[in-house]
């Protein structure tokens, strides 16, 4: 993959528009070909930008940790926050590994 992502919904919209045009002019063969293409596209898995997802996961982790820190007034809570931070770190690492492996 060359990093070039396309919009699945935009492609389906264009194919549906072309299919309607084929129907209007009575072009059954082209209509059926577009119908097969639309069904094929709908059955394909969605593509995504791995780096953007990883960046979003990291940002979500940082925001969660910051919110916890800002809302924990006592020293006792700070000890528990350390545990929560470690959980967020581990959870985010696991999510990133899943994304990098293609969801497997």
Structural commentary:
This protein folds into 2 domains: 8-43, no CATH class; 50-100. It contains 4 helices and no strands. It has helices spanning 8-25, 28-43, 50-70, 75-100. Helix 1 packs antiparallel against helix 2. The longest helix has 26 residues, at 75-100. The two termini are 18 Å apart.
Q: What descriptive keywords fit this protein?
A:
mainly alpha; 2 domains; 4 helices; 104 residues
What gyration radius follows from the Cα positions, in whole Å? Answer: 23 Å
**Which range does the strand content fall in?**
under 5%
- Overall mean pLDDT score? 79
DSSP, total strands: 0
Largest sheet: none
**How many H/I helices?**
4
Structural domains: how many: 2
Secondary-structure element string = HHHH
Oligomeric state, counting identical vs distinct chains: single chain
The dominant shape is rod-shaped
- The helix-and-strand class reads mainly alpha
Low-confidence stretches at least 5 residues in length (pLDDT < 50)? none
Helicity range: over 70%
**Could you give the distance between the termini?**
18 Å
Give a quick rundown of the structure.
The protein is mostly helical and 104 residues long. The chain has 4 helices and no strands.
